[in-house]
């Protein structure tokens, strides 16, 4: 069976949502706990493993050794989130639009 684009327009019926709304977990005011809801230990450990694997591959021909850990990865990602949010706040104040801010909205 082939499913593809068509010029025929037909109505789409979507059943109303009847489930519970809101967060399924209690949310703390601690930003680190909120951060860990999205990037838990499993995800961070995977990023660390793959980053170290990539560094090992890239530096295999040189005598350099490099590795990272979960604490550094969390700090790096958190720092990037803060920098983008600061840039977006600044663009709202100055009226200048940046591509990263308009993409996030």
In short:
The chain is mostly helical and 105 residues long. 54% of the residues lie in helices and 0% in strands. It starts with 30 loop residues before the first helix and ends with a helix.
> Count of helices?
4
Biggest sheet details: none
Shape: extended
Helix share bin? 40-55%
DSSP E strands, number = 0
The parts where pLDDT drops under 50 for at least 5 residues are none
Rg over CA atoms: 22 Å
Distance between the termini: 38 Å
| Estimated share of beta-strand residues | under 5%
Order of helices and strands: HHHH
pLDDT averaged over residues: 83
Structural class: mainly alpha
What does this structure look like?
It is a single chain. The longest helix has 25 residues, at 70-94. With 105 residues, the protein is an all-alpha fold. It has helices at 31-38, 41-58, 70-94, 99-104. It contains four helices and no strands. It is extended and about 65 Å long.
């Amino acid at each position: 069976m082939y499913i593809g684009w068509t010029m025929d327009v037909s109505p789409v019926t979507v059943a109303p949502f009847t489930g519970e709304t809101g967060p399924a977990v209690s949310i703390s005011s601690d930003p680190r706990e909120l951060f860990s809801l999205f990037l838990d230990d499993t995800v961070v450990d995977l990023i660390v493993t793959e980053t170290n694997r990539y560094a090992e591959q890239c530096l295999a021909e040189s005598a350099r050794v490099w590795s990272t850990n979960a604490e550094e990865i969390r700090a790096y990602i958190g720092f990037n989130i803060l920098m983008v949010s600061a840039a977006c706040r600044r663009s709202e104040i100055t009226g200048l639009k940046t591509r990263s801010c308009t993409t996030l909205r």
